[in-house]
Write a structure and sequence with these properties.
The structure holds 2 protein chains of 2 kinds. The model of chain A has no long low-confidence stretch (mean pLDDT 88). Chain A has a 7-stranded mixed sheet with strand order 1-2-3-4-5-7-6, with helices on both faces. Chain A has 4 helices and 7 strands. The radius of gyration of chain A is 14 Å and the shape is globular. The longest helix of chain A has 16 residues. Chain B is mainly α. Chain B is 64% helix and 0% strand. In chain B, α2 packs antiparallel against α4 and α4 runs parallel beside α6. Chain B is elongated. The C terminus of chain B is likely disordered. Classes of the chains: A alpha+beta, B mainly alpha. Chains A and B meet through β1, α1, α2, β3 and β4 of A and α1, α7 and α8 of B.
Chain lengths: 129, 211
């Protein structure tokens, strides 16, 4: 379990495995293949726990290193609320100053806490405290 | 690609930071994967009968039982009988009581190992991947749990035995995966943030588990 969370590092192939049940249109096959390829190149990490899985990478951000969430799939309801702190812990462990993701669908603004800020049209970011 | 050179070029500093980020990510993976492997091995290996972990758990249970019962009185026996469990109803002496408790401790230790192992296998099946294994740093805890049971009076022992099941259940089920493929490769074309990052909202929009 990484960074004291329930998440474990998964093989890149887990991306395809976990995304089988996704609603059509949420992620195209080519996008998922690309994400998996990024994991294979060790430029992104696939992590998962009972609640869900994420693919994250680390990149230069506006305030230093930024943990970027490429893909997040909940395996059960309430995953985000339960694992938000875990994401923060991982980001902290990686030395990231910020966490960001781009929301393709609406509704995130209501769901996220006040520590999250909108960046651009559909991107959200928060500082790692 | 559009023509006209609208692409913004990275500065040397940005490139260096990007390289650092990749290295940082790989270091992170290398740092945690061995730990995951070790924890998984601790779960899988104890499944074998007579394994060192199983013996260790059972042995510790025995010692704890002897210590716990050294100064115990007859009230303990009554409390044991009062639990409704088939433990001490036929006992008349402390020696018998301790012997039974020791036996129960052994069973508990073994059962906890079995539970963790079984649930590990269930986790394997659940993910559909042969590599996934439940993580249990649980054996030492299971031994401790058996020791606790012996050390406590009958009533608290019963409560702790209940806790054993909960603990074994909570410890199992967290996965470990085989190592990511070694050897960084040259970076290919990057993904479009605006396209792929959007998938993060599956935490909300997954049709099966939406808000």
């Amino acid at each position: 379990m990484i960074s004291g969370t329930k998440f474990c590092i998964e093989d890149p192939v887990f991306v395809a495995h976990a995304s089988r049940g996704l609603r059509p249109g949420v992620a195209s096959a080519s996008e998922l293949v690309e994400i998996e390829a990024q994991c294979e190149k060790e430029e992104a990490i696939c992590v998962a726990c009972d609640d869900g899985m994420m693919v994250i990478d680390l990149r230069p951000g506006p305030e230093g290193l930024e943990l970027f969430v490429w893909l997040a799939i909940a395996f059960r309801h309430g995953a985000y609320e339960r694992q938000d702190a875990a994401l923060l812990a991982i980001a902290r462990d990686l030395g990231a100053q910020t966490i960001a993701f781009v929301a393709r669908r609406r509704g995130w603004a209501r769901r996220l806490g006040p520590e999250w800020h909108r960046r651009g049209k559909d991107e959200f970011m928060r500082r790692v405290t | 690609m559009s023509k006209g050179g609208s692409e913004i070029k990275e500065t040397a500093q940005q490139r260096a930071m990007a390289d650092f980020a990749v290295n940082q990510l790989q270091d992170y993976t290398k740092r945690w994967l061995p730990l995951q492997k070790r924890l998984a091995a601790q779960t899988v290996e104890p499944g074998a009968a007579g394994s060192a972990a199983r013996k260790s758990a059972t042995g510790r249970s025995n010692v704890d039982t002897q210590i716990a019962f050294a100064g115990a009185g007859e009230g303990l026996e009554k409390k044991l009988a009062g639990t409704g469990r088939n433990l001490g109803a036929a006992m008349t002496g402390m020696a018998d009581n301790a012997a039974t408790s020791r036996g129960m401790g052994q069973v508990t230790a073994n059962q906890s190992v079995d539970d963790a192992y079984t649930e590990t296998l269930a986790a394997l099946a659940a993910t559909g991947r042969g590599e996934r294994a439940g993580v249990g740093n649980s054996l030492s805890r299971q031994a401790a749990i058996s020791g606790d049971q012996a050390a406590a009076d009958a009533q608290s022992a019963l409560a702790k035995e209940t806790a054993i099941g909960e603990t074994a259940g909570s410890l199992a089920g967290y996965g470990l995966q085989a190592a990511m493929r070694p050897g960084p490769k040259p970076q290919g074309p990057g993904m479009s943030t605006n396209v792929l990052g959007a998938q993060a909202d599956n935490f909300v929009t997954n049709p099966q588990y939406g808000p």
